[in-house]
């Protein structure tokens, strides 16, 4: 699958129109149409923006080897926005779901590590 096909697949899987993508990403619907029809290709910054919007990886959008994700495209979970009760995804450690308190500790730890550079 080429990037044009993956972009269209990701959009239809998310059940949004090109106009809705435009409203969320500021990428004009006509430009999106060009990407999805293989008329033009997005630059790296646009690919990153679309990957985030569609909850897929940049690698998945760019990789034309379908065997990398057989039957299931990857998705992102932003831990800052993750709510264990309201989420379709459940994050486990040793088979047990994370509690909100545990998640808060993880976020503080990661923020600390990142601030150290």
TrEMBL record:
Superkingdom in the source lineage: Bacteria
InterPro entries registered for this protein in UniProt:
Cro/C1-type_HTH, Lambda_DNA-bd_dom_sf
- Record-linked PROSITE patterns: HTH_CROC1
For this UniProt record, the keywords arranged alphabetically read as follows: DNA-binding
**Per the database record, which ranges form the HTH cro/C1-type domain?**
7-61
CDD domains reported in the protein's UniProt record: HTH_XRE
Q: Name one Pfam family in it.
A: HTH_3
Q: Which PANTHER family would you find in this protein's record?
A: HTH-TYPE TRANSCRIPTIONAL REGULATOR XRE, TRACRIPTIONAL REGULATORY PROTEIN-RELATED-RELATED
The name on file for this protein is Helix-turn-helix domain-containing protein
At the highest ranks, the source species' classification is: Bacteria, Bacillati, Bacillota, Bacilli, Bacillales
